[in-house]
Amino acid sequence: MTPKIAAFLRDAEPATPCLVLDVDRVEENYRRLTAALPLAQIYYAVKANPAAPILGRLVGLGSSFDAASFEEVTACLEAGAAPERISFGNTVKKERAIQAAFARGVRMFAFDSEGELEKLARSAPGARVYCRILVGNDGAEWPLSRKFGCEVEMAKQLMVRAGELGLDPFGLSFHVGSQQVKTTAYEAAIAKVGLLFTDLRSAGVNVRMVNLGGGYPVRYRSEVPEIGKFGDAIMGAMVKAFGNALPELVIEPGRFIVGDAGVVSSEVVLVSRKSAEDPVRWVYLDIGRFGGLAETEGEAIKYVFRTPHDGGEDGPVTIAGPTCDSTDTLYEKSNYRLPLALDAGDRVELEATGAYVTTYASQRFNGFAPLAEHYV
């Protein structure tokens, strides 16, 4: 929690649940990342948090943007981003969204299938396109499975086809999974891309960009490697794969830029037990999985909790949200402990919740309003 957030919570006492995010911390994280990977162009993953104050600050810093929808493209443009600094990075797009983005000046698009490539050829003629390949997600606390990307051999065929269709086969991309804590995941993916680059150039394809995706982690309950270690590992792998002829580098950080810039302030609704002898208390908060904490699915992302009673005697808890849905249980197996003095009405802060919270919040499930947002 930054001093600005602490002061806002103390002085404003905003109604809960709410997100309070320090935009200065966003800038600090952006600068840390540029220092770790100075040769890479940052394309902020807008889906992590598309709030106008964040986009505006990043525009001022010279960032580019990775948009997942035409609505996100529009948000970037309204924040002052130049269209040539926007990549339409979703590989599954409605053709009218492609047309609309192209009409607004966007010229870089992702794909991973022949059907998507044909849509791009029709609706974004001559655009720069890059093919996303499948890579391993070992080490990611929020893996991305096989929904996006294609196998290497198909990628080769599609990149050749892109040129035949009048598009510019600009580059290749991958994503090693969100909250990736192993630098080796990037090294293995870069080696795979390097071999494909060689094959494509031998086939006459003018490929010249590598998009390293996102995944750069923030600290939750466990320590993670410093961003400098990722930078060193990535650049070492790039030199090994490409020598001195490095391609253009793109990265798509989301969580790293905004994650630890935000804090969710919540209220305890109820503390109860399932039997008189049960040592485990149930702590119900006024925010849960449907209020924005979707990444607690499978207890994958483990947020840090701060309470007014920290330092006192504690005990085991199950932590749940306020809705009537039984899946709205956040942590039951992850050995959370909270103070025994915690009671209904106490405020609880969830740290490093600046990413993938406001945009995951449901629209009035059980009648609860979407998460309030404050940018300081």
Written description of the protein model:
The chain is α/β, with parallel strands linked by helices and 376 residues long. It has two domains: 23-257, Alanine racemase (TIM Barrel, Alpha-Beta Barrel), CATH 3.20.20.10; 260-375, Lyase, Ornithine Decarboxylase, Chain A, domain 1. The protein has ten helices and 19 strands. It has helices spanning 3-12, 23-36, 52-61, 70-78, 95-103, 114-123, 152-164, 183-202, 227-242, 255-258; strands at residues 18-21, 40-45, 64-67, 86-88, 108-111, 128-132, 140-142, 168-173, 178-180, 209-211, 248-251, 262-272, 281-285, 305-306, 314-320, 329-331, 337-339, 347-351, 372-375. Strands 1, 12, 13, 14, 15, 16, 17, 18 and 19 form a nine-stranded mixed beta sheet that branches. Helix 2 packs parallel to helix 3 (52-61). The longest helix has 20 residues, at 183-202. The two termini are 12 Å apart. The model has no long low-confidence stretch (mean pLDDT 96).
Strand content: 15-25%
> Which whole number gives the mean pLDDT?
96
- Helices, by number, come to 10
Low-pLDDT regions: none
From the N-terminal CA to the C-terminal CA, the straight-line distance is 12 Å
Structural class: alpha/beta
Secondary-structure element order, as H and E? HEHEHEHEHEHEEHEEHEHEHEEEEEEEE
| Basic shape | elongated
Under CATH, the topology of the largest domain can be stated as TIM Barrel
Oligomeric state of shown chains: single chain
Rounded to the nearest angstrom, the radius of gyration is: 22 Å
CATH class of the largest domain: Alpha Beta
What is the count of distinct domains? 2
CATH superfamily of the largest domain: Alanine racemase
Q: How many runs of DSSP E, i.e. beta strands?
A: 19
| Largest sheet report | 9 strands, mixed
Second rung of CATH, namely the architecture of the largest domain: Alpha-Beta Barrel
Helix content: 25-40%
